[in-house]
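Ticket #4471: structure export looks truncated?
Reporter: QA, pipeline team
Priority: medium

Steps to reproduce: submit the single chain below to the structure queue and open the exported record.
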Amino acid sequence: MLLDGKKLLITGVLTPQSIAFSAAKVALEQGADIVLTNFGRTVSLTEKTAKRLPSTPDVLDMDVTSDEQIAAVADELRERWGRLDGFLHAIAFAPQDALGGNFLNTPWESVSTAFQTSAYSLKSLAAGMSPLMEGGGSIVSLDFDGRFAWPIYDWMGVAKAGLESVTRYLARDLGPRAIRVNTVSAGPIKTIAGKGIPGFEQISGSWDRRAPLGWDVEDPTPVGNTVVFLLSDLSAGITGELIHVDGGFHAMGTELR
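Actual output as written to the record:
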């Protein structure tokens, strides 16, 4: 039971295909107590999906671009548990004009929305939740390798590169408090978010063929397992790290890039 007794916050569960759903499922199986969050109209969908987990966790409404809502969730968790051992940041969004080959024409308003929601919010959530992590803990986010200029990914790629940098700076500042901060670079998964990217097949189409271990775009389980490892005490010496869970694709050259 890797997470026996751990108290965890997991964002981003939308459907059973979500990477966050896989992480939540494994976390429950490994003994954690969890609370889920989503935002606005998606809360009801998360509540429906939560019923498909091994036990049904509570779902709280939290907009990660609102410090007030983050603080309200932190207060709820403090009253409920008295502490927090870790959280998964599984949140990303970019307006349609920030994706799909429109890089040179994307207005700042759309870029700023993508960056705040997909990268800066990791800092916001860490700042809001870290006071509950007095005994240390683990923060994990979900990435899509920001080192490269991917086809059609555009400003979301820039935001993910920012997320990776935020991870390193948070690792620096929170390390003295025994809080680890890492990000997981997942291969493409056919989640609602993934399928919402124009031209998603340009990235995912040849992934299985080029990844040494193969890759199933329908199965988020390998990524969820790695998230749970990073939330567990087995990862006690790891922080500031970008861990690839992509079947080895990242090591195989630049045909798509």
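Status: closed, not a bug. The export was complete when the record was re-opened. Leaving a note from the reviewer for reference: Residues 108-129 form the longest helix (22 residues).
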